[in-house]
């Protein structure tokens, strides 16, 4: 843990991460911190607030002050000493104010995305190699403001090998006044050599009632409508108890944006579950055709959670992610062959390691679904 020095939690920190925030010592901060934990629990929002605090120029002990010039620059996405390496799919989550601040700092690009490109172009899910190389190699130059420089990388596991090796060199010989905030959803995918050179910080997932309470407070304000409690709890379970994932899922569903990546993933996952519930009667080719345009990661995550529930029910337990499908899972558990079920779980685990590989989604899905069907056959 980091040494405690912060008296109160920042307003953008969710309650389950407040103890982590209170443990931060901005005066004696390590040169590299790797925050890891489940996707959708608020790691990114925590890191953004932490980066702002590390760059805040107020003399007050409570940071960020949200009043100094550095804080204004940060909020507008113009701070010259803040570098964010994130894929195009995460660009919208970076600080960017609708207000125009009177600042002289140049606007930095944090992605290779061209603003003039057509809006229907598929966003990249990996950090651009060019961005990573330029950002990391440019760290040898001194800071613009004479204070800290913060480089945020998320998700760290999406760095390609050459970029990861360049980062490793910077961690071995860290540039002066440079702080690395590295975020990983899946720590096991991060190079051991990078992990060993960082202070590891585990971000906790909230307990169920705390997470639901946070969502009940925020969703009606965001959607302007009445909260559907039944839908909330269903999606909460499906998303593995990750409040930010639940929030974004329900918000996307409310806006009904058919071209939104998240909306596409949600609809495709629901179709996938309908197919998986058919067991041996699943039509792998037809199902793959319906869902292959969605991102592989959420599809494989849904499949893994379904199989985890199937294994739990097979052992006499209850479904964790899809409790509403308990009866279907129970029926399938009586048909499933235990050895084949275990082998399929291992197959999903291996497949997830290559989920961002530029392979044909439909071909991968057909193969996975065909193997699933065999679980229920002699």
Describe the protein.
With 378 residues, the chain is α/β, with parallel strands linked by helices. The protein folds into two domains: 15-202, Rossmann fold, CATH 3.40.50.300; 257-374, Up-down Bundle (Zinc Finger, Delta Prime, domain 3), CATH 1.20.272. The chain has 15 helices and five strands. The chain has helices spanning 18-22, 43-55, 69-75, 129-137, 161-172, 192-195, 208-223, 229-238, 243-255, 261-276, 284-291, 296-314, 326-335, 338-352, 361-374; strands at residues 32-36, 82-85, 149-153, 178-184, 199-202. The chain has a five-stranded parallel sheet, with helices on both faces. The N and C termini lie far apart (51 Å). Mean pLDDT is 85; it is low at 3-7 and 97-121.
Summarize the structure.
With 378 residues, the chain is of the alpha/beta class. The protein has helices at 18-22, 43-55, 69-75, 129-137, 161-172, 192-195, 208-223, 229-238, 243-255, 261-276, 284-291, 296-314, 326-335, 338-352, 361-374, and strands spanning 32-36, 82-85, 149-153, 178-184, 199-202. A five-stranded parallel β-sheet has the order 2-3-4-1-5, sandwiched between helices.
């Amino acid at each position: 843990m980091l040494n405690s020095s912060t008296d109160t939690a920042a307003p953008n920190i969710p309650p389950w991460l407040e103890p982590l925030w209170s443990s931060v010592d901005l005066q004696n901060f390590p040169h590299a911190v790797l925050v890891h934990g489940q996707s959708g629990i608020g790691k990114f929002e925590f890191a953004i607030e932490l980066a702002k605090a590390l760059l805040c120029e107020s003399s007050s002990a409570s940071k960020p002050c949200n009043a100094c010039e550095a804080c204004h620059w940060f909020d507008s996405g113009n701070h010259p000493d803040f570098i964010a390496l994130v894929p195009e799919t995460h660009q919208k989550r970076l600080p960017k104010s609708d207000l125009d601040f009177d600042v002289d700092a140049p606007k930095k690009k944090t992605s290779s995305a061209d603003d003039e490109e057509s809006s229907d172009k598929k966003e990249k899910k990996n950090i651009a190699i060019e961005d990573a190389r330029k950002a990391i190699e440019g760290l040898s130059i001194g800071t613009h403001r004479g204070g800290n420089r913060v480089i945020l990388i998320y998700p760290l596991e999406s760095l390609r090998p050459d970029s990861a090796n360049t980062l490793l060199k910077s961690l071995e010989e860290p540039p002066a006044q440079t702080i690395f905030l590295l975020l990983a959803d899946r720590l096991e995918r991060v190079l051991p050599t990078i992990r060993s050179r960082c202070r590891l910080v585990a971000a906790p997932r909230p307990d169920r009632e705390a997470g639901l309470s946070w969502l009940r407070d925020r969703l009606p304000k965001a959607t302007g409508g009445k909260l559907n409690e039944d839908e909330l709890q269903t999606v909460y379970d499906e998303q593995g108890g990750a409040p930010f994932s639940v929030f974004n899922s329900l918000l996307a569903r409310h806006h009904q944006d058919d071209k939104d990546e998240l909306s596409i993933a949600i609809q495709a996952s629901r179709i996938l579950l309908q197919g998986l519930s058919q067991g041996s009667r699943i039509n792998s080719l037809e199902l793959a055709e319906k869902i292959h345009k969605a991102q592989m990661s959420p599809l494989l995550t849904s499949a893994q959670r379904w199989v985890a529930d199937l294994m739990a029910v097979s052992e006499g337990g209850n479904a964790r992610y899809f409790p509403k499908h308990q009866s279907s899972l129970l029926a399938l558990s009586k048909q499933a062959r235990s050895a084949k079920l275990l082998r399929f779980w291992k197959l999903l685990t291996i497949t997830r390691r290559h989920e961002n590989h530029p392979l044909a989604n439909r071909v991968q899905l057909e193969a996975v679904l065909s193997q699933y069907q065999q679980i229920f056959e002699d």
